[in-house]
């Protein structure tokens, strides 16, 4: 079974909690804090595996979780880090956020390994909170929470050239003749249920990869039949070979057929419809060829050329069965590819899991004024979590935290309480001077 889509749930590991303990040894009845830090949670990582060509494994198993970090222990013992979970996927897999459909990562080109979700950082043990005024802190930092996402995995075949056309026009026969692929061939609609890949070896060239996309029918872009499921596989191709039954063996007009398929490509993705295209007018071995003056009038090849060559689309008469005209077509396609270059189409990232996880923090917070100490105090699990995410010692981290205070409305509340430049703000053991 070929599986090119799968919906799965992934979760990174939670960071281990920091530990609260105190040194207790003989002759040291009141030792200082010695609570260890929690371990880091495991990451969720995707890697390309060249030995895979389907997503079938992800159809059978839906949930994937990295290991949580262990909590810290006594005597400054640090908790063990959680193990990462590495998910193997075929080259060409696009990872999307399920609800929005936005791209998180495209496992193509040079992107062979991608850390999707970072594990939670371990919490600091109480040893880190000892100060001259607080020598026996009875609190430690909790581990950073796990991050979770529901993903949609889509396999988009990576090929230089895509074959399109109505069912039974000879695409599979053509592919089996020009490449090492051996697709199953029979005479019924949607004969090819899997995108078949093959390598074309041409003398004097480096060759190219070609994919037979399953036969399309009118309405494919709207999900009719299996068309919509397979249209995604031509999104990466640089050149399209449009194969048409020039002989009209099923009673259809080849010119009408070409327009019908191009309409489906346009409806699905206008960018695909703009890709360079060449028409392979197939089955010339069964075209009736009259003699005399009527030959040019009744030759369907000339009708196809008259319609499409003025539009800049080359037409090559071929017979996939006998091989006539196939070599010339392939060299022409190779020339097209050389002009376009070697760059692989890679889908840009649209969804950033790390940023989204911060926006999802909905825990409450309070902003008050401590008259005794003449300080403004900001508290709440939302703020504490953000402190856990942020390295305040770096300029970038401090700027990020300032933006968080602004976006959550904390700065607005401080101003409403009457804070002035130079006043002190205390946030979980950190003191800051306020300046607008």
Would you mind describing this structure in some detail?
It contains twelve helices and 18 strands. With 436 residues, it is α/β, with parallel strands linked by helices. Strands 10-11-9-12-13-14 form a six-stranded mixed beta sheet, sandwiched between helices. β5 (93-97) and β6 form a beta hairpin. Mean pLDDT is 80; it is low at 183-193, 223-227 and 358-362.
Keywords:
436 residues, six-stranded mixed β-sheet
Q: Which radius of gyration do the C-alpha atoms yield? A: 32 Å
Instruction: Characterize the quaternary organization of these chains.
Output: single chain
Q: In angstroms, what separates the terminal alpha carbons?
A: 62 Å
Low-confidence stretches: 183-193, 223-227, 358-362
Characterize the largest beta sheet: strand count, sense, and whether it forms a barrel: 6 strands, mixed
- Mean pLDDT, all residues: 80
Going by helix content, strand content and strand pairing, the class is alpha/beta
What best-fitting shape do the alpha-carbon axes yield?
Answer: elongated
**Order of strands in the sheet with most strands:** 10-11-9-12-13-14
Question: Helix and strand succession?
Answer: EEHEEEEEEEHEEHEHHEHHEHHEEHHHEE
Percentage of helical residues? 10-25%
Task: List how many beta strands DSSP finds.
Answer: 18
What is the beta-strand fraction? Answer: 15-25%
Helical element count? 12
Write the SSE topology:
Blueprint: E1 5-11, E2 44-48, H1 57-60, E3 63-65, E4 85-89, E5 93-97, E6 103-107, E7 113-117, E8 148-155, E9 161-164, H2 171-178, E10 196-200, E11 208-212, H3 227-231, E12 239-245, H4 254-268, H5 270-273, E13 277-282, H6 294-298, H7 300-308, E14 315-317, H8 326-340, H9 353-359, E15 366-370, E16 375-379, H10 381-389, H11 395-407, H12 410-416, E17 424-427, E18 430-433
Parallel strand pairs: 1-3, 2-4, 9-11, 9-12, 12-13, 13-14, 16-17
Antiparallel strand pairs: 1-8, 2-7, 5-6, 5-8, 10-11, 15-16, 17-18
């Amino acid at each position: 079974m070929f599986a090119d889509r799968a919906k799965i749930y992934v979760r990174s590991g939670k960071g281990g909690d920091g530990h609260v303990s105190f040194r207790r040894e003989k002759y040291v009845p009141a030792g200082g804090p010695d609570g260890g830090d929690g371990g880091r949670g495991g990451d969720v990582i995707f890697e390309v595996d060249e030995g895979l060509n389907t997503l079938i494994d992800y159809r059978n198993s839906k949930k994937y979780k990295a290991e949580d970090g262990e909590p810290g222990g006594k005597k400054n013992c640090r908790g063990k880090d959680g193990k990462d979970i590495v998910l193997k996927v075929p080259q060409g897999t696009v990872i999307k956020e399920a609800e929005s459909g936005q791209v998180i990562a495209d496992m193509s080109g040079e992107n062979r390994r991608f850390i999707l979700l970072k594990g939670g950082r371990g919490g600091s043990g109480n040893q880190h909170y000892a100060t001259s005024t607080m020598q026996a802190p009875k609190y430690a930092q909790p581990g950073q929470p796990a991050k979770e996402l529901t993903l949609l995995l889509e396999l988009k075949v990576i090929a230089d050239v895509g074959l399109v056309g109505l069912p039974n026009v000879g695409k599979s026969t053509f592919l089996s003749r020009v490449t090492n692929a051996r697709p199953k061939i029979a005479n019924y609609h949607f004969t090819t249920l899997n995108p078949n890949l093959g390598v074309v070896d041409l003398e004097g060239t480096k060759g190219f990869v070609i994919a037979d996309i399953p036969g399309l029918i009118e309405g494919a872009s709207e999900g009719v039949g299996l068309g919509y499921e397979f249209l995604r596989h031509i999104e990466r191709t640089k050149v399209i070979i449009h194969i048409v039954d020039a002989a009209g063996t099923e009673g259809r007009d080849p010119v009408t057929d070409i327009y019908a398929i191009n309409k489906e490509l346009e409806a699905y993705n206008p960018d695909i419809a703009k890709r360079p295209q060449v028409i392979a007018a197939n089955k010339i071995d069964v075209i009736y060829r009259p003699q005399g003056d009527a030959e040019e009038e009744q030759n369907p090849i000339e009708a196809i050329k008259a319609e499409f060559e003025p539009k800049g689309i080359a037409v090559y008469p071929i017979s996939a069965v006998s091989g006539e005209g196939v070599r010339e077509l392939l060299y022409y396609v190779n020339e097209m590819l050389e002009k376009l270059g070697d760059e692989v189409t890679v889908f840009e990232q649209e969804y950033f899991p790390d940023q989204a996880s911060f926006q999802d923090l909905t825990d409450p917070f309070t902003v008050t004024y401590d008259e005794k100490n003449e300080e403004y105090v900001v508290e709440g699990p939302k703020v504490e979590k953000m402190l856990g995410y942020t390295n305040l010692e770096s300029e970038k981290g401090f700027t990020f935290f300032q933006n968080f205070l602004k976006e959550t409305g904390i700065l607005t509340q401080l101003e409403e309480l009457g804070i002035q430049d130079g006043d002190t703000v205390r946030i979980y053991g950190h003191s800051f001077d306020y300046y607008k």
